[in-house]
Structure formats: structure tokens, C-alpha cells
Amino acid sequence: MKKFPRQNEVYTSNYFAVVDPEECAGCETWIDRCQMEALSMVDEVSKVDLDRCIGCGLCVTTCPSDAIQLQKREKEIVPRRIRPTFINRS
Length: 90
Ligand code: SF4
Fold this sequence. Notes:
This protein is of the alpha+beta class. Helix content is 11%, strand content 20%. It has helices at residues 29-33, 58-62, and strands at residues 15-19, 39-42, 45-48, 68-72.
């Protein structure tokens, strides 16, 4: 699923991760934890790519500074259907 540029069009929980820059210690602990590669460091603060975040919450439970929370999306995203032939099974 990481091969899709906008993963939340394929699957989402309709929540997304939000980082509190005041609380973020820049430890990068949860960058490795995110299976969607939605997290990166910008100016020593973690940043969430909202096109990739599926709102799974793994980063919330991993952050040692409690700097990240899930928020409900204002507009619900309904993942589009994918034809099986479009999925690379290799
Ligand atoms: S909620 Fe899940 S997908 Fe979104 S940034 Fe956190 S670990 Fe990644």
C-alpha cells in the first residue's frame, strides 16, 4: 500500500495524526513506527503528510513526549474502489 502516493484514498480511518510542535522533542521515535511513511522531520519537529496518514494511531502510542494526537477529519474520505488488476501482487 505504500506504493500509492495518496494512501488515504485507498484506506483511511477518517482520523489523522497531529503533532504539537511545542511538545515534540524531535526524537524521531515514531518516524520508524509509521508503516505508511507519513512522518518526517522538518526543522527538528515531526511533520505529518496528510495524503499518506491513514489515522491508525500507532504513532500516538509510540511518542514518548505525548506530542501527537489523532483528530477526526472534517470531511469524511470514502476510499475509492481498486480493481484487483491494479494491485501489484509481486
Ligand atoms: S496515524 Fe498511523 S499512518 Fe498516520 S502518521 Fe501515525 S502511524 Fe502514520
